[in-house]
Amino acid sequence: MPDKKCSRREREKLRQRQDMLSAALELFSEKGYHNISMHEIAARAEFAVGTIYKFFKNKEDLYKALVLEQSDKFHDTLTQAIEAPDDEIEKLRNYVRAKGEVFRANASMIRLYFAETRGASFNIMAGLDSEIREQYDIFLQKLAMVFEEGIKNKRFKKISDPYYLAIAIESITNAFLFLWLQAPERHPYPENPDVILDILFKELMDS
Amino acid sequence: MPDKKCSRREREKLRQRQDMLSAALELFSEKGYHNISMHEIAARAEFAVGTIYKFFKNKEDLYKALVLEQSDKFHDTLTQAIEAPDDEIEKLRNYVRAKGEVFRANASMIRLYFAETRGASFNIMAGLDSEIREQYDIFLQKLAMVFEEGIKNKRFKKISDPYYLAIAIESITNAFLFLWLQAPERHPYPENPDVILDILFKELMDS
Amino acid sequence: MPDKKCSRREREKLRQRQDMLSAALELFSEKGYHNISMHEIAARAEFAVGTIYKFFKNKEDLYKALVLEQSDKFHDTLTQAIEAPDDEIEKLRNYVRAKGEVFRANASMIRLYFAETRGASFNIMAGLDSEIREQYDIFLQKLAMVFEEGIKNKRFKKISDPYYLAIAIESITNAFLFLWLQAPERHPYPENPDVILDILFKELMDS
Amino acid sequence: MPDKKCSRREREKLRQRQDMLSAALELFSEKGYHNISMHEIAARAEFAVGTIYKFFKNKEDLYKALVLEQSDKFHDTLTQAIEAPDDEIEKLRNYVRAKGEVFRANASMIRLYFAETRGASFNIMAGLDSEIREQYDIFLQKLAMVFEEGIKNKRFKKISDPYYLAIAIESITNAFLFLWLQAPERHPYPENPDVILDILFKELMDS
DNA sequence: GATGAATGAGTTTTCATTCAT
DNA sequence: GATGAATGAAAACTCATTCAT
User: Fold this and answer.
1) CATH label, B1-56, candidates 3.40.50.620, 1.10.285.10, 1.10.10.10, 1.10.10.60
2) What is the pTM for the complete model shown?
3) Partner residue facing A120 (CB), from B35, B181, B198
4) Is the pLDDT higher at A14 or at C155?
5) For residue C61, what pLDDT is reported?
6) Is residue B103 within 8 Å of B199, Cβ to Cβ?
7) Would you call A199 and B172 a contact, using CB atoms and an 8 Å cutoff?
C-alpha cells in the first residue's frame, strides 16, 4: 500500500511534468524560447511558477528536457521504421512515411526540430547540441547502413557513399516537411513515399 | 575637391556601418540574436551605443539590415552561377561550386542563413521572413527552370517535378554545408561538384 | 476566517499601493515628474522597482493614479464644504476654510494641484487633463450656483456673472495658498475666511 | 571702423541668440522643457547644436535666459501700465488692458509664465525661481502702492490690506487669462477692463 | 568660429529566480 | 508541498554635452 501510494504519487508527478512540458512546447513553438516567460508557461500549464522550479532547475533546463523528450520520440519512431523486418527499399518507404506521420502529428515538434538541428548557432543553447547531435548521428549511421545493406544485397547500385545517401534522403524529406510547414496546402507532404524516393533513385541523366 | 571630401565622408560612414554589421554578424552567429546586447555589439565594433543608434533605428532594424545584406550577397552569387551561359549540367556544377565557395568564405553567414531559411518560427522576426522568403522563392523558381530546360533539351529524363528537383539539390547541398559547419575536417564540402550531383543523378536502383 | 485572511491580504496590498503613491507624491512634488526615476520612487517606498510595476503599468500610469487620487480627495472636500446645509455666505466661508485646511494638511498635494490645474501645457500628460479638468469644471459650476442662489435669495446683489465670481474666489484663494506655499511665515493663509471674502465683497470704490 | 565692425558682429550675435531663444520658446511652450531636446531647438533655430552651446552653458541656462527675458518683457509692460500719469482707477484699467494685450500677443509666453509662477515645484529649476520671484514681488509692491495711493486720495475706501488687493487683482486677471488660454472662444478676455474690476469693486453683499 | 558625429551616463521596463507563508 | 509576491540584474534606447575638423 505505501508502495502503491508512492507509485501513485510518482505517476501524478510525471503527469504534472508532462503538463508543464506540453505547455512549454506549445508556447515555445509558437513564439520562440526568448519570447516566452516562465510565468506564461506556468499560466498555460495551470501551475504556480514556483512549482515549475520544483521540476526544472531553470528555464534552460526545462527547455533541454523538452527538446530531448521530443527528439527521443522522433528518433525512436524513425529508428523503428528502418529496423522493421523488410527489404531495404521497403525500409526507406517506411522511413519516408513514418517521418511524414510523426511530423504531421505534431507540427510544434517540427518547429523545435528544425530550430535545433538546423538553427545552427541560433539553437539557443550550445550545450544542448551535443546530446541531440549524437543521437542524430547514430540515426544517420543506421540509415546509411540501410543503403549499405541494399547495395550488398544488390538492390541498389553502388554509386555514392552510403553515408552521403543517408544525408541526401534525410535532407530531401526535411525539405519537403519544411515546405509543408510553411504552406501545408500548397506543398503537401506526399502520401506516396515513392514521390520522394524517385527524386533520388530514378535515373535522371541520359548517359 | 569638395566632392572628393564629401565622398570621403560617405565612404567613412559606409565603413563604420560595415564595421557595425560585421560585429553584429559575428556576435549574432555565435550566440544568437537574443543573447547579444547592443552594448556588446557596440563594444565589439568599438563604438558607443549611441553611435549605433545613429545608423540603425533599433536592434531589430540592425538585425534586418544584416540579414538582408547577407541574404542579398548569397542569392546574387547563386543566381549568377545558374545564369552563366553554359549547358544545364554545367549550370548545376557552377551552382554547387559557388554555393560551397560563398559559404566557406563566410561561416557566420551560413549560420544566419540556416537560422533564417530553416529556423521556421524560431526566426526571431516574423516580418523579416517575407522579404527573405520571397527572394528565396524566386531563386528556387530559377533553379527549377534549369531542370525544366535540361529536360526540354533532352539532357535530363523527365522524372520528377522540376521544382522538387530544385528543392532536392538545394537541400542536399545545404545538408553537406551543415555537416561541414559542424565538423569541417570530418565532413569537407566536396571540391568536385559531381560528388553531390551523382547522388541525385546516377541511377541507384536496378529496376 | 479565510475571509478575514483574504481581506488582510487585500488591505496589505492597498497599504503597499499607498506607500508607493506617497513616495511618488513626495518626490514628484519636490522635483517634478521628469526629474524622478522609478528607481528613486522604489527606493523611497522601500520596494524593488519590479514591485512597483506589479501595481502600476508604467510611470505614467503611476502618475495618473496619483494625481487622480489627490484630485478626488481635494474636490470631495471642497464640494462637501459648499453643499453643507447653510446659507450662501456660510457656504463660502466653509469653502475658504476647508480649502485652507486641505491644502495645509498636504503641501505636496498643492504643488501637484497647481501643476495640474495651472501648469497649462506644462502639465506633463495631455490625456490626464481632460479628467481633472472636467472634475474642476463641475466644481466651478457648483460654486457658481452658490453665488446664483445667494443672488436669488437676496443675500448678494446681482453684479457680475456668477461663474466669474466663482472664478474670482477660486483664484484669490489659490493666490493666498500659493503665497503661503512660498513663504508660510510671511504669508499665512488667513484663519478668518472673511479676510478673503471681504476683498471681494466689501465695497471698495466710493461711487 | 573696427568699432563698427565689432558692433556689427555684436548685433549679429544678438540676433542669433534671439533666434535660438525664439525657437526654444516655441518648442518649450508647445511640449514642455523635458520633451524638447537640444537637437530639436537647434534644428528649429537652424543652427548646429554646438553653436547653441557657444551661447548658453547648457540646457538649463538656455531655459533660464528664456524665462528671464520673457519675464522682463512682461513686467516692464505691466509696470509701465501702472506708472502712467493717470489716477488710480485709470491705472488699474491700464493694467488690466495691458495684461490682456501682452498675453494675447504671445500665448507661448503665458504658458511659460504660468508654468513658472504657478507651477510651483513643477517649475523645472528651483534656482530660477528666486530671480523671477523677486521681480514679481517688486511688481506686486508697486501694484499695492496703487491701491494705497487710491485710498489716500480717497478714491477707494480702506477695507483690505492693499497688498492683498494687489494679489486679488493679479489672481483674477490670471484666472481670466488662464480660462482664455484653455478655450479662447468660450472664455474671451474682456475688452472692457471694468468687467474684471467690477468683480472686485462693486459692492456685492447687501449689508 | 561653426559644425555635427560621437559619446556614455542614465532612464524605463522586463522577467528569471527565490523564499516566506 | 505548492504558491506567487518580491526581487534586482540586465536590456533597449535617449539625449545633453563635447571636441576634432
Assistant:
1) 1.10.10.60
2) 0.85
3) B181
4) A14
5) 93
6) no
7) no
